[in-house]
Specification:
The chain is α/β, with parallel strands linked by helices and 272 residues long. The chain has twelve helices and nine strands. A four-stranded parallel β-sheet has the order 1-2-3-7. The chain has a three-stranded mixed β-sheet with strand order 4-6-8. The longest helix is centred in the last third of the chain and has 14 residues, at 215-228. The model has no long low-confidence stretch (mean pLDDT 86).
Length: 272
């Protein structure tokens, strides 16, 4: 990975609560002279704006050279209005942009690892089934990234001088592929053809309920799927080079992801 250190010595692990300004301040207290850069990984949740507010407030009076901020892709307005999951993301982004902090924004696309969770493909493959259903249009490219490449990108940036990336907003996309491509890659690793069936949002919500997913995900997942297939809103194919340029090497491809997880896709389904 080029300039990434082979090993990093962990001096101290401190647990805190990003939901509390005082908790964040207590972590930073007495360490401000030691902190050079901060890697801030935030979940996309309905209270994300509170977390960002807390972080920015706690950072007042703290001088750092760089804050590497990783947060999922920015949603279009229609999804902000339709989904609790993304409702406050624009507020969070605005607060961070206007914070005056030396931020490097890493905006990942859709995680390949979603195929291991709420996309619902894993139980299909493990259960020996041959049909995968979701609300994705079958022929619209989805901008994917492997979470391992997100970690690598952050490592590369940390190893560079802060001024190399401060102020940058980098969209991390490793591969741009359709859901039809995905089921072909899945079928290759399990040794059988997987057919794709596009279903309505309500049908998909019912499917998630049947699989035991929590109510909030069953309600929000269908519109999120439309966002994932629409990450191409404002997406330029030239942005596929951004992650490559950071890594200095090719990021994980769709076929590579499925090959790396072939053992899991071919495993027996878990028993309750």
């Amino acid at each position: 990975m080029g300039d990434v250190p082979a090993k990093c010595k962990i001096e101290e692990i401190v647990q805190g609560d990003l939901g509390s300004v005082e908790s964040i301040k207590s972590i930073l207290s007495g360490r401000s002279q030691e902190i050079d850069r901060i890697l801030l990984i935030m979940p996309t949740i309905p209270t994300i704006h509170v977390i960002v507010d807390n972080f920015v407030e706690a950072m007042k009076g703290i001088s750092v050279k760089q804050v590497i901020w990783i947060m999922e892709c920015d949603p279009p307005q229609v999804l902000v209005e339709k989904s609790n999951f993304y409702a406050t993301v624009p507020k969070a982004v605005a607060v961070m942009k206007n914070s005056g902090l030396p931020v490097t924004r890493l905006e990942p696309g859709c995680f390949f690892q979603n195929f291991l969770s709420f996309y619902g493909l894993l139980p299909v493959l493990q259960g020996g089934q041959s049909e995968f259903s979701a609300p994705f249009p079958s022929n619209i490219p989805i901008q994917f990234v492997d979470v391992r490449d997100i970690a690598k990108a952050a490592s590369v940036i940390i190893a560079k001088p802060p001024e190399s990336y401060v102020g940058s907003h980098i969209r991390l996309v490793g591969d741009s592929r359709t859901i039809n491509d995905c089921v072909v890659a899945a079928g290759t690793v399990v040794g059988r053809k997987i057919n794709y069936k596009q279903v309505s949002e309500s049908e998909f919500s019912d499917m998630l309920k049947a699989l035991g997913f929590p109510d909030w995900m069953c309600a929000d997942a269908p519109p999120i799927f439309h966002f994932h297939s629409g990450f191409c809103y404002g997406f330029d194919s030239s942005e596929l080079n951004a992650l490559l340029q950071v890594l200095g090497d090719k990021p994980s491809s769709l076929e590579g992801f499925f090959k790396d997880h072939a053992e899991l896709f071919n495993a027996s389904p878990p028993t309750s």
